[in-house]
Design brief:
With 198 residues, the chain is α/β, with parallel strands linked by helices. It has 5 helices and 6 strands. The longest helix has 19 residues, at 144-162.
């Protein structure tokens, strides 16, 4: 299975996505793309963006942008999906996740013929089996970034602190003058804590 992130060019998000694909917007500690790639455990194999953003997207990433050929078995993930729903990476070929609130596709795993049809309109091809997701997952308006912000930050911090490659390891602090490291566990501060300098 190959992963394809797509920006469906939602006009209501022009203020956020005028100069970058919607999945490159920072929606927490990370961009939506970074969060989705972590959730799937792999980088995107291809990116689909509106034509006006293709050259800008190519400058930002080595990942193929708007490739002429799509893979035979591809998981298409909506770049407006700020928070990955459960089961995102477990879809079978011909299955899709749809946001119940809006009826819009969150993700779809498709064969080559389905992939071609989907890339034309971002509508599910005939015969695709859609499963509804009750919680809102897609950014529809710029202020939705605020709606998802707190949970996105929490997920991002959990992922970065749980993954040494995602953030600084505690041993890195030894290189800083005046820093004392006690133990090798991650430091976590409660959301209700008050932290003072010095």
């Amino acid at each position: 299975m190959r992963v394809v992130l797509y920006d469906d060019g939602a006009e209501a998000l022009a203020a956020l996505s005028d100069l970058r694909p919607v999945f490159d917007v920072r929606t927490g500690c990370l961009t939506t793309r970074q969060r989705l790639e972590r959730a799937l455990g792999r980088p995107a194999d291809a990116l689909l963006v509106p034509g006006r953003l293709a050259d800008l997207a190519r400058e930002r990433t080595p990942t193929p942008v708007n490739p002429p050929d799509l893979p035979a078995d591809a998981l298409f993930v909506n770049g407006r999906c700020a928070l990955a729903p459960d089961g995102l990476g477990a879809l079978g070929v011909g299955e899709a996740l749809v946001e119940t609130h809006s009826g819009e596709v969150i993700a779809a795993r498709l064969d080559r013929a389905g992939a071609r049809a989907f890339a034309e309109s971002y509508a599910l091809p005939d015969g695709a089996r859609a499963r509804g997701v009750q919680d809102r997952r897609l950014i529809h308006r710029p202020w939705d970034v605020i709606r998802f912000r707190d949970e996105a930050i929490e997920r991002d911090l959990d992922a970065m602190l749980g993954d040494p490659a995602g953030g600084k390891d505690a041993t890195d602090a030894r290189a800083l003058p005046g820093v004392t490291v006690l133990g090798d566990a991650a430091v976590r501060v409660s959301a209700s804590a008050t932290v003072f300098p010095g």
